[in-house]
Amino acid sequence: MRKEYEGRLDEIPCIFNLMEPLAGTVDAVKELAQYFDVYILSTAQWKNISAWSDKAAWVQKYFGDSKDSPFYKRLIEKRRKINISKVAGKLRAHKIKKAYVTLVSL
Fold first, then answer.
1. Per-residue pLDDT at 61
2. pLDDT at 83
3. Nearest-angstrom CA–CA distance, 41 and 98
4. Rounded CA gap, 21 and 23, in Å?
5. What is the pLDDT of residue 96?
6. pLDDT, mean of each 10-residue run, the chain (106 residues)
7. Where exactly are the structural domains of the chain?
């Protein structure tokens, strides 16, 4: 399958369900969430129709789906790539402190 999707791994069906978080990131995010409002900002390939639900399932798997989860109702999924600094500027306008953590990497 890897050869079939060479150069476009994020189009592999259900790929996001198969990923594991980078070492230490889950604990780091949970610690950050004690001091900051944390969000996940993500996009998905147009051709990967399962990506949206797979990403939500991934967040719930590693961070839980209860109101105690640091990302409960804080997963922002956009259709197109956006400038993160513009989003961060809007968050700052609402007095939300920012912290960026990469959870997974292709």
1. 92
2. 60
3. 12
4. 6
5. 46
6. 76 81 88 84 76 87 89 75 60 50 49
7. 20-93
Cβ atoms of residues 54 and 16 within 8 Å: yes
Kindly write down the DSSP assignment for every residue of 15-58, as one continuous string.
HHHH--PPTTHHHHHHHHTTTS---EEEE--TT-TTHHHHHHHH
Query: Cα(21)–Cα(16) distance, rounded to whole angstroms?
Result: 10
Within a 13 Å sphere around the CA of 81, how many CA atoms are in the beta-carbon half? 1
Angle at 36 between CA 66 and CA 94, to 5 degrees: 105
Q: Read off φ and ψ for residue 85, nearest 5 degrees.
A: -70, -30
- The one-letter amino acid code at 47 reads K
Rounded to two decimals, the pTM is: 0.69
How far are the Cα atoms of 18, 29, 67 from residue 40, in angstroms, in the given order?
A: 18, 11, 16
